[in-house]
Amino acid sequence: MQLLRLSLAFFCNFASGPATVMSNKMVFVSTGFRFPILLTVAHYGCTWMMTKAMSKVGAYNPVQMQLFSSKATSAGRAVFFLIISWSFYNIMSNISLSQNSVGIYQMIKLLMAPGAVVWDAILYGKKPTCFQAMLLCIAAFGIALCTISGLDSGDLTIPGLGVAFAAVFLAVFQKGLTTHVIQHSEVKLSPLQLLDSCMPWMGAITVISAVALEDVSAASQQISGRHCLAIAFSSVCGTLANVSSTWVLGLSSPLAHILLGQMKTICILLGGVLFFDKEPTFRTVFGAIIALVGITTYAWLKIPKEDKTSERDNENTWDEEAAMLGKKSQPDDFSNGIRSERSDLSDMEIELNCTKQQ
User: Fold this and answer.
1) Are residues 343 and 205 part of one domain?
2) CB 8 within 8 A of CB 252
3) Rounded distance, CA 332 to CA 342, Å?
4) What is the pLDDT of residue 123?
5) Are residues 88 and 163 in the same domain?
């Protein structure tokens, strides 16, 4: 059942992620809607309505958390900072997409992988080996090649580069806090409970940002039926991406989520070349290949260690459960040979009788 849930979450996120980027770029380019913060408001509104609808049908139970009082717990404070980072990450991400090409936008987001490694090293003491650090440096070199090529070709501007870097920093912070709140804090929240707690405040922050930074009156005059249809489709894709992204982080780690992002990156890069971007130069393609190979190889080296740890944890859990039932392992029995079926049945009957007497 856990494998089915994880597979569904990964598939939903894999499908909705590229669809969100493509639909957002379509809103900016095809319809001429140049208000990325207002588009983020539409995404949040759709996501909040979906979480409320799922609450009504019993998919989760809403929780009340004290975020701004002196009695706020550590989990409440983590959620508070998560709300801020999540709000501005999505704002910066949409601004980056509106100012940069799809390819440059997505390549710079690959810096989230080294950022997640730094996050794990600071908070959980998980430090990469020298070889793993070298792979991340190779990936960063590939991203640098793409960035320089984008600056030379005009696909990337200095302000757009600054916004893209800010989005990466906030993304690492947001994904790390999401995993911490769901998996490591004393108050265990489900992904939908976390979304329900965050969305109203995130929507308020984004609305204030839109009023302060964008010409809302001009945007309201430009809205047409075509705009509404494109924004609605983009909002649905963004909602599925938000829900599935939080779901995946709740079932896995930031590293696993970024691995999924590498597969989405390939789809997004291909979609950008086919529909929106200029033909990439050799340096851009070469840099993208280096970056993807470096990050993917790093992740591949990490997976066996995590799997062994998981298996060892499962064995320890099994031993603890056996000890709670009063059973002791007897390795000598296995070294002396296999018991007969009658002996096995007799032992089982004795254990059952002892359990009933207790």
Assistant:
1) no
2) no
3) 19
4) 79
5) yes
Can you list the alpha helix ranges (DSSP code H) found in the chain? 2-29, 36-56, 74-99, 102-109, 112-124, 130-153, 158-179, 191-213, 216-222, 225-251, 254-275, 282-324, 331-335, 341-357
* 351 and 225 within one domain: no
Question: Span 110-129, mean pLDDT?
Answer: 83
Q: Same domain, yes or no, for 296 and 332?
A: no
For residues 47 and 245, the answer to whether their CB atoms sit within 8 Å is no
**How would you classify residue 73: left for phi > 0, otherwise alpha for psi between -120 and 50, otherwise beta?**
beta
Task: State the total domains in the chain.
Answer: 2
Of 36-45, 48-57, 309-318, 322-331, where does the model show the most confidence? Answer: 36-45
Alpha-carbon span 336 to 175, nearest angstrom: 52
| 305 and 324 in a common domain | no
Contacts of 19 (CB under 8 A, 6+ apart): 237, 240, 241
Q: Which residue has the higher pLDDT, 238 or 305?
A: 238
Report yes or no: 264 and 17 within 8 Å, Cβ to Cβ: yes
Question: Could you tell me which residues come within 8 angstroms of residue 20 by beta carbon, excluding any fewer than 6 positions away?
Answer: 234, 237, 238, 240, 241
How is residue 300 written in tokens? 């591949």
Domain holding 243, by residue range, is 2-310
Q: Which helix (H) or strand (E) holds 185?
A: none
Measured CA to CA, the distance from residue 37 to residue 59 in angstroms comes to: 30
Residues 258 and 323 in one domain: no
What letter would DSSP give residue 278? P
Last residue of a domain, one of 310, 327, 347: 310
List the structure tokens of 333.
């029995």
* C-alpha–C-alpha distance, residues 278 and 332, integer Å: 70
Type of residue at 252? S
Confidence of residue 177 (pLDDT cuts 50, 70, 90): confident
SS (H, E, C) 51-88: HHHHHHCCCCCCCCCCCCCCCCCHHHHHHHHHHHHHHH
- Nearest-angstrom CA–CA distance, 21 and 263: 14
Are residues 343 and 306 both part of a single domain? Answer: no
CA 325 to chain CA centroid, nearest Å: 39
What radius of gyration, in Å, describes the C-alpha atoms of the chain? 25
CA 98/CA 211 separation, integer angstroms: 18
Task: Assess whether 169 and 265 both reside in one domain.
Answer: yes
Query: pTM for the complete prediction?
Result: 0.71
DSSP 336: T
Structure token digits, residue 235? 């909002």
